[in-house]
Specification:
The protein has about 230 residues and is an alpha+beta fold. Helix content is about 45%, strand content about 20%.
Length: about 230
Amino acid sequence: MGALYCPYYAGEVKNQVVRRDEHFRWQSERRIITGADLYPQARVRPLMTKASSRLGKQLEEAIATLNGVGARFALIGGLALAPHKVVRATQDVDLLVEAGMADAVDRALTVIGYHCIHRSPDAANYLRDDQRLDFLYAHRPAAREILQTAPQLNTPFGTVHVVSAEGLIAFKLQGWVNDPRRTQDLEDIRALLRANRSTLRMDEVRRYFSLFNREPLLQEILNELK
């Protein structure tokens, strides 16, 4: 089901590239950063390592590049968890970008040394040496709504929109529905519900679970959290 984006997420193409070409040795070379590195106000702030600082600089550059072409975008994925009281390490820079700016973003990334390994109307993956940027394009109604309502935050890496907790739950739910092996998505949903139960717009959360015919799953998780 592609309520937010095409069910064949570009990450699957990316992983196939890794398996075919050992030049892209992601599992050993990818850099790790935590959400607390992005948001000093997070309750847990681990020491920033040289590796995480490198990924932070990559994110800072990506933010500046997207702002430079006037693209509206927002953080999704692991880096978007910390503002919603969930802090964990991540190896990914995931961004939701307005679909109409896909060509401009592609040209700008090419200028700073990235090359595209996959692009569709819904998603794209870019590589530069051992650095990766993953994009989802907001052209479906639900994704456009999530992007337009993403709040803006000031971080050490620049001002950036971050998807709401409800929107993050929606994207992670589709990720898990598309590929049940992505158990971290399901754990992130549980953590977001646990940490934000009193402030979440539950009617919106229920609407997203209904889109994927997973209302019983939501009730099961809520029962676990009682």
